[in-house]
């Protein structure tokens, strides 16, 4: 294999080089009188010369190209058969070497000529700017044209580069228009990916991390592709306004470009973003066949009862209750009825007031009875520390306390809000159990879910004589064929105002005591109001029942999907997932998440409803959490050897991203991003997001910066999913000219590390060391220093600031080459028993780096478009390693991990 150097190029384009590489016509005419053996000797000589010409790739290409031409002439000669008998094998090798090397050099030269053209245009633009004003005035049109051409790209140029260029390019179009009623619909979304960015999100101080977290869950993983594609193109409605060949400072195009390129560490683009010439209007005019009307608001007609449940539930979540602002008429007050003074009641205003335990409230009407069920007295409790909501039946005045999972990391008790609703009691027998709506009488019964192992269950209550109460359900509630409805938090938005009629029987203090208390309170400082921006919106009883019906229907459809689900008695957690046609990427990822210990305590029937925020418009209102919890409970029921997750995939496609159900193979890491984002937004307890800018200096101020970021980020998002997976990094920039510093905090659900190119083997520690090493920003990547007010050479150092209970490492084995995915199968060595991240922590971080140990691996075999995923998982109860290959589950060991095929590594604190 030849070595390709990087000497100065003599030609300006590949076409020019190809023209001089052709054999002259005069030489071809002379070769007719040469024998094949003599021509072959010339080929051998030129190949040796090409091998020696290392560093001059243009000369190498010319020599190999001419060798291929001579070989083709020999092949067409009349004496070729005789020549082939004597020199056939060696001739074939030389012919193949010439063709292969010429093709490889062609791809490299095309890229280098493009880079040379870009540098030339930038140099010419800079020279024009530095030219005297008189000369510049004469050439303003030409100068602007050259500058504009370096940042603009037309739709035809873009399509030509992804379809015809050698090598073929890939692109991400960032659509930031206000009106997105029409969209780009290119035939291959892996070649041209379109990311929809709401125009309102583009503000001053925008960085990549905050932009990503404010996108819809179906768009966030797509934005990550800007780090692996060749071109990033920003698209508005029409052409952007340019000043000196660049977007106007402070314009939406300029702010978005800064966020995607300068303030982006983990998914940094290969080159600065370009801007679509003419915007979407130009694209629509040139490629109407690649344009469609936005159909996201058009839902498919429900196909079964589960679809009807989801549709009705989503409609209920969209319905808003507005307060009645009309003046209320005062209610007529009845004269108080005075009982005898002998009852010992205190006097108020000269009259004896009746104690409230003797007053019989007037009936307002019969209590509402649902399905013959008696209304209960219910206590609803919310704990802001872990967002746990518990509903317990009150019996004999005793309330069982809310259990707290013992394995949830670092609980922080902030507030507890308790409200009690009292309904009239009547001596009625308990209602007969009923099936959830939409489940036919002939459907298979719901299997009983056995108790989970002790390390997965919440601890028992610390006090109380009654039986323990699980989070969200009374102990009498079991997952059987007749699950009763769960009563979630009660919506008190329509609670009537308390008037004198209802407070007339309350014992009032003496007026002198009242005046003294008021005077005392006036002298005391007023207590600050608590911040309730992260207080979850109360879920109505109807919404809770609908969400529970979705869970139950999903449980039934998953465990009885056709005849594919196989009943049996496997160990809990050892249930396989059928492949439904290139869905192994989903199956392997789900198995790893099903065996993530902290996920078990959140996504189950007992707990998931207490975590869901149905009014978060960024998520799925709890639909994905419900179906994921149903899958989790089926897997850990120990009653099925394999199940078919078809309904899960269909709902995931309709609620999150439809491309994942197209029957093609997909990236497992991208699917995990989609799923975790959906679960995070479903359980995000922040009801009113507060965006903020990161104007941090770092250095000696880093601790105060981190505290401020932690405080403000909690007002933007806070979910149990993020607490499990999200690690926090800090990137510090330092200007080499003036020493100005800047710090930016970012969060991510896994670490994506590059694999070395020129090596035969590496280790995880080497990949992490390279990922968290210092980077010099120079050339096109220079930092716009706020003090120098100009692009300057700078250094960037990224370190870990805080660590979650679970750390996922993504080995970036795939890259786009010539319009297709290429895989790096380099072995990556790692220790399954220990991962130490202490050396990658920031020196000022208060985090104590505890060691981690491996508990799951997803492997990939073959190519991305035609490969296969499997998962190796350490069972959380027995510690045995299991191999999940779709529906097949078999025993394995940590020694069975293939370091050449390992793709996602899952670690938990040891």
Draw up the topology in text.
Layout: H1 14-21, H2 25-31, H3 36-52, H4 57-75, H5 80-130, H6 133-138, H7 140-151, E1 152-153, H8 155-163, E2 171-175, E3 182-184, E4 192-196, H9 208-213, H10 220-223, E5 231-235, E6 242-243, E7 246-247, H11 252-261, E8 274-276, H12 279-286, E9 291-293, H13 305-318, E10 347-348, E11 351-352, E12 378-383, E13 388-393, E14 416-421, H14 500-503, H15 511-523, H16 541-559, E15 566-567, E16 576-577, H17 584-594, H18 597-600, H19 608-611, H20 623-635, E17 640-643, H21 646-655, H22 668-682, H23 702-714, H24 720-725, E18 727-735, E19 741-748, E20 751-754, E21 762-763, H25 764-771, E22 775-777, E23 783-785, E24 790-792, E25 794-802, E26 806-812, E27 814-817, E28 820-823, E29 828-829, E30 852-861, E31 868-874, E32 881-885, E33 888-892, E34 902-909
Parallel strand pairs: 1-8, 2-4, 2-5, 5-8, 16-17, 20-26, 21-29
Antiparallel strand pairs: 3-9, 6-7, 10-11, 12-13, 12-14, 15-17, 18-19, 18-25, 22-25, 23-24, 26-34, 27-28, 30-31, 30-34, 31-32, 32-33
Helix pairs in contact: 1-4, 3-4, 3-5, 4-5, 5-7, 13-16, 16-20, 17-22, 20-21
């Amino acid at each position: 294999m030849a070595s390709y150097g990087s000497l100065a190029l003599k030609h300006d384009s590949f076409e020019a080089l190809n023209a001089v590489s052709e054999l002259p016509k005069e030489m071809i005419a002379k070769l007719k009188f040469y024998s094949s053996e003599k021509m072959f000797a010339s080929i051998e000589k030129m190949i040796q010369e090409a091998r020696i010409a290392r560093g001059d790739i243009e000369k190498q290409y010319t020599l190999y190209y001419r060798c291929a031409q001579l070989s083709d002439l020999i092949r067409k000669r009349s004496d070729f058969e005789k020549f082939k008998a004597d020199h056939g094998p060696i001739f074939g090798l030389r012919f193949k070497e010439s063709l292969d090397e010429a093709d490889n050099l062609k791809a490299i030269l095309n890229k280098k000529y493009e880079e040379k053209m870009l540098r030339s245009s930038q140099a010419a633009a800079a020279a024009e700017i530095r030219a005297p004003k008189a000369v510049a005035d004469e050439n303003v049109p030409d100068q602007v044209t050259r500058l504009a051409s370096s940042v603009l790209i037309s739709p035809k140029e873009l399509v030509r580069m992804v379809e015809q260029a050698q090598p073929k390019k890939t692109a991400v179009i960032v659509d930031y228009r206000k009106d997105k009623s029409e969209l780009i619909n290119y035939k291959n979304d892996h070649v041209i990916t379109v990311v929809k960015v709401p125009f309102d999100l583009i503000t001053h101080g925008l960085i990549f991390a905050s932009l990503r977290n404010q996108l819809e869950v179906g768009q966030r993983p797509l934005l990550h592709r800007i780090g692996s594609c060749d071109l990033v193109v920003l698209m508005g409605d029409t052409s952007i306004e340019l000043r000196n060949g660049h977007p106007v400072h402070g314009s939406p195009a300029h702010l978005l470009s800064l966020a995607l390129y300068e303030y982006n560490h983990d998914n940094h683009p290969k080159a600065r973003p370009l801007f679509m010439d003419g915007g979407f209007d130009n694209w629509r005019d040139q490629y109407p066949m690649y344009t469609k009307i936005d159909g996201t608001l058009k839902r498919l007609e429900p196909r079964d009862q589960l679809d009807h449940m989801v549709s009705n539930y989503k409609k209920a979540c969209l319905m808003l209750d507005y307060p009645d602002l009309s003046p209320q008429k005062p209610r007529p007050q009845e004269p108080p009825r005075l009982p005898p003074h002998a009852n010992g009641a205190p006097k108020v205003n000269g009259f004896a007031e009746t104690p409230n335990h003797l007053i019989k409230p007037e009936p307002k009407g019969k209590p509402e009875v649902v399905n013959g069920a008696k209304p209960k007295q219910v206590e609803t409790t919310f704990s802001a520390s872990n967002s746990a909501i518990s509903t317990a039946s009150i019996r004999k005045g005793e309330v069982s306390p809310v259990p707290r999972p013992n394995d949830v990391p670092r609980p922080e008790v902030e507030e507890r809000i308790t409200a009690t609703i009292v309904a009239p009691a009547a001596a009625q027998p308990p209602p007969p159990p009923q099936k959830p709506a939409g489940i036919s009488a002939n459907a298979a019964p719901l299997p009983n879910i056995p108790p989970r192992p002790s390390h997965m269950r919440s601890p028992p209550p610390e006090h109380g004589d009654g039986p323990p109460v699980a989070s969200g359900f009374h102990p009498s509630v079991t997952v059987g064929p007749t699950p009763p409805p769960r009563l979630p938090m009660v919506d008190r938005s329509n609670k009537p105002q308390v008037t004198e009629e209802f407070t007339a029987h309350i014992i009032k203090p003496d007026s002198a005591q009242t005046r003294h208390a008021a005077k005392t309170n006036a002298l005391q400082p007023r207590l600050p109001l608590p911040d309730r921006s992260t207080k979850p919106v109360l879920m109505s009883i109807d919404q809770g029942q609908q969400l529970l019906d979705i869970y139950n229907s999903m449980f039934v459809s998953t465990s009885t999907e056709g005849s594919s689900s196989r009943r049996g008695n496997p160990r809990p957690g050892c249930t396989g997932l059928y492949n439904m046609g290139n869905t192994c990427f989903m199956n392997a990822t789900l198995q790893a998440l099903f065996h993530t210990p902290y996920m078990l305590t959140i996504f189950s029937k007992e707990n998931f409803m207490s975590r869901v925020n149905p009014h978060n418009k960024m998520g799925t209102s709890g639909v994905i959490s419900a179906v994921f919890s149903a899958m989790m409970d089926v897997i850990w029921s120990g009653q099925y050897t394999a199940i078919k997750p078809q309904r899960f995939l269909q709902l995931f496609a309709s609620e999150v991203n439809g491309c994942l159900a197209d029957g093609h193979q997909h990236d497992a890491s991208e699917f995990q991003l989609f799923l975790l984002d959906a679960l995070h937004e479903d359980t995000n307890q922040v009801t009113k997001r507060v965006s903020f800018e990161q104007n941090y200096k770092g250095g000696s101020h880093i601790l105060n910066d981190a505290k401020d970021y932690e405080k403000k980020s909690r007002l933007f998002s806070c979910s149990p999913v993020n607490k499990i997976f999200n690690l926090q990094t800090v990137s510090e920039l330092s200007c080499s000219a003036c020493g100005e510093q800047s710090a930016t905090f970012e969060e991510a659900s896994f670490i994506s590390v590059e694999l070395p190119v020129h090596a035969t083997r590496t280790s995880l520690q080497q990949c992490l060391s390279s990922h968290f090493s210092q980077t010099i920003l120079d050339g096109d990547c220079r930092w716009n220093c706020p003090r120098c007010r100009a692009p300057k050479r700078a250094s960037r150092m990224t370190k870990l600031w805080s660590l979650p209970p679970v750390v996922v490492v993504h080995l970036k084995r795939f890259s786009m080459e010539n319009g297709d995915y290429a895989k790096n199968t380099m072995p990556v060595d790692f220790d399954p028993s220990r991962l130490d991240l202490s050396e990658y922590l920031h020196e000022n971080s208060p985090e104590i780096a505890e060691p981690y140990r491996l508990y799951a691996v997803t492997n990939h075999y073959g190519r991305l478009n035609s490969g296969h995923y499997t998962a190796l998982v350490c069972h959380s109860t027995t510690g045995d390693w299991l191999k999940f290959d779709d529906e097949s589950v078999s025993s394995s060991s940590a020694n069975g991990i293939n370091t050449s095929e390992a793709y996602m590594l899952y670690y938990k604190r040891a």
